[in-house]
Amino acid sequence: MEARPNMIKRFNKPIFGLLIGIIVPIIAFFIYFIIEHFMYGWGFVDFINRLIEIKSILPPSLCVFADLIPYFIFKKLDYWYAVKGLVFSLVIYTLIFVVLTFMKY
Q1: Cβ distance 8 to 79 under 8 Å?
Q2: Using CA atoms, how far apart are residues 61 and 96, in angstroms rounded to an integer?
Q3: Structural domain containing residue 38
Q4: Per-residue pLDDT tens for 42-67?
Q5: Is residue 65 part of a domain?
Q6: Which of 7, 44, 65, 71 lies 20 to 30 Å (CA to CA) from residue 26?
């Protein structure tokens, strides 16, 4: 069963991929926080303060790997314009993490 052309045109846009690429790592970060909360009982502010205290950007940067899920979905559906937006969001996250890495020294 093929997708209707309207559905392809509707979601196959770079802005859609950009939004998905920005939102999915944020959701992954909150899932990571929930896991840490149940393991250690920290609140969100304590969790953020711990990340700042140990100067670690590793957990937030690993959350970007969650973008692989929509990447493979978009690739399977041939949403190449959405993939372009998703890759652009990865460039944005990469620049943020590079700046944060150099700021801590």
Answers
A1: yes
A2: 10
A3: 11-103
A4: 888 888 888 877 777 788 888 899 99
A5: yes
A6: 7
- Whether 1 is covered by a domain: the verdict is no
CA distance 55 to 104: 7
Whether 56 is covered by a domain: the verdict is: yes
Residue entry with tokens 């990447």: 71
Averaged confidence pLDDT in the chain: 86
SS3 per residue for 28-95: HHHHHHHHHHHHHCCCHHHHHHHHHHCCCCHHHHHHHHHHHHHHHHHHHCCCHHHHHHHHHHHHHHHH
Cα distances from 39 to residues 25, 32, 35, 53, 90, in angstroms, run: 21, 11, 6, 19, 29
